[in-house]
Amino acid sequence: MARINLLDTKTTNFRDLIGNGKIYRVPLFQRDYSWQVENWEDLWQDILMLHQDPESSHYMGAIVLQNSANSDKEWTIIDGQQRFATLSILAIALIDKLTQLVDSRQEPEQNRERQELLKRTYLADKDPRSLRYSSKLILNENNNDFYQSNLINLRKPRHLRSLTHSNQLLWKAFDYFCEKISEDIPEVVSSGESLATFLTDTVAQRLLFIQINVEDELNAYTVFETLNARGLELSATDLLKNYLFSLFQGPDDLRDAQRQWKRIITTVQLEKFPEFLRYYLSLTYTRIRRERLFKQVRNSVKTAQQAFDLLEELENYSSLFVALGNANDEFWRDIPQNQEYIRELSLFRVKQVYPTLFAAYEKFSPDDFTRLLKLIAVVSFRYSIVSSLNPNDLETIYNNLAIDIQKETIKTPRQVFERLSSFYGADEKFRQDFSLLEISTKGQKRKLVRYILWKLETQVSGVKIIKDSFSIEHILPENPANSWQQNFTEKQQDEMVYRLGNMTLLEAALNREIGNQPYVKKVEKYQESQYRLTQEVQAEEWTPDAIANRQQSLARLAVQVWRADFA
What we know:
Elements: E1 6-13, H1 14-18, E2 23-25, H2 37-52, E3 58-67, E4 74-79, H3 81-103, H4 108-122, E5 124-126, E6 133-135, E7 137-138, H5 144-152, H6 165-184, H7 186-189, H8 192-206, E8 207-214, H9 217-228, H10 236-246, H11 251-268, H12 273-281, H13 293-300, H14 304-323, H15 339-347, H16 354-363, H17 366-386, H18 393-407, H19 413-424, H20 427-435, H21 445-461, E9 471-474, H22 490-496, E10 503-506, H23 508-514, H24 519-526, H25 532-535, H26 544-561
Parallel strand pairs: 2-4, 2-7, 3-8
Antiparallel strand pairs: 1-8, 3-4, 5-6, 9-10
């Protein structure tokens, strides 16, 4: 593993960080302030515990900083901006309490001096030449103006609702801490000295961080991958966005890129972007790992034009990415024949195939794309659902298929099938596996059982019934009466109740009517059902052998249902 070149790693506190004459910048295009009440509450409760136990300290997690190439006094906050901003707002709220003491004529000179010292220590340095304050914390482009103008200078916004959501959160954080300080620690608010002690000793000194300093964005990303597994707040997407935006020189190009980025993120959603990017990169590269996304993009995108080209392609694929996970997406309005197969892929939780589908949507005709969707659904059902083989083994083949479709060395669904033949498997193997298939009808698996019964009934009856028109009937009930023990031991009941041979379709009214009655009563009602599979349940008695025989019959039917067009 490559060495991470860190400048240093050390334990520090808020006072050491912010009170040392250094300036901390949130990258201009880093995500906005997003902490809300639950985050503020967690922080405040931790601080109250420190207040109640003067010997204690609290670990706030790691922060990742990048030193400026131009000044040893300026640092970029790679990870930790939410905590930096929130602690600064808490300091502002405490300093505001000193203002109230001054206004009430309580030790006005001393408290005015405390206010000045605390502000210079934790919020802004005063330039001795201009006598103007220079903020120690500079937020991103959407939050900084409001933070400097309204929070640092304690100017209440005239119309809170007119602010952007993130700026509303900044002010609401200030209101929250102002209220909690008055409610929870009135003894601190009673004097300027106790307020200064609370901020200086409790908040600034006993909230501890692990400070990690890195030399460049690539090292920052490597550190992020290590920390992110522990639930810290840094976003790989933010880091990538900052890198791409850094390639644009002119303001017009930058604005265009920002708008395009926003459209992409709005479509795919922030939390799914790394997954989306990984599938996109798999159109060109093999074995793309999530932890190498940033490095891969940085190695291949080095100019503004290349960044624009990347954003253009990502936007082109973004709608398809979302639609592949939602059969009801507007994307399929003009090609509704694809919706059934999209539902199946979602039901089977198949995503490894996305790169192949990305490529095929661009290169195949609409009819061939539909045929490919059907093929993938069939292969996925046979390989992953029935044979229970590792779906991760499909990832490499789908990655290679995507690249070959992009290169046009594969041009038809039949060629795809030829490459997937070993995963499709022999019919006899599929029949044997299906004849032993057991699926619980509890939780999400219930939808899978409904799907299988629906497909089998459609095949045997020739009528496409409505999926949600029937209930699942367990011939041997899930909670059988004692009379069932004549044919099933307790062990056999547990083993056989969720075998597909023990399940059938039944109208809800009939299902309620027969309940847990003995088989001889149930089988009479089965003949009243409209469903062919249910009418064909006619064994003289229901035993483990009867379930096995019925499932063998269903398995032979399944070979016809889940068959590729090219087999």
